[in-house]
Design goal:
With 81 residues, the chain is an all-alpha fold. The chain contains 1 helix and no strands.
């Protein structure tokens, strides 16, 4: 093997190694971004679930109040008859 061929082989191997490192770094970066997006999405869902629970409790309390008032109105109407 000549020195020129050995030098070209070394350069090719080195370029291949650099390409592999760049590809690996891109895969790690993409995986990290995907995990961050997933975590943000989960946090948004958690916040939505908490708000929904609070809204549900508020609606339930309002319905109880309306029911109580309706019973009162029905009682008044029965007394008038």
């Amino acid at each position: 093997m000549s020195t020129a061929n050995a030098g070209m082989l070394f350069v090719f191997g080195f370029a291949l190694l650099i390409a592999a490192i760049v590809i690996a770094a891109m895969l790690v970066w993409a995986s990290t971004k995907k995990a961050q997006a997933s975590a943000a999405r989960e946090a948004n869902y958690r916040e939505l679930a908490e708000r929904t629970g609070a809204d549900s409790a508020e609606i339930k309390a309002s319905l109880m109040e309306i029911k109580s008032r309706l019973v009162s109105v029905e009682r008044m109407l029965k007394e008038v008859d």
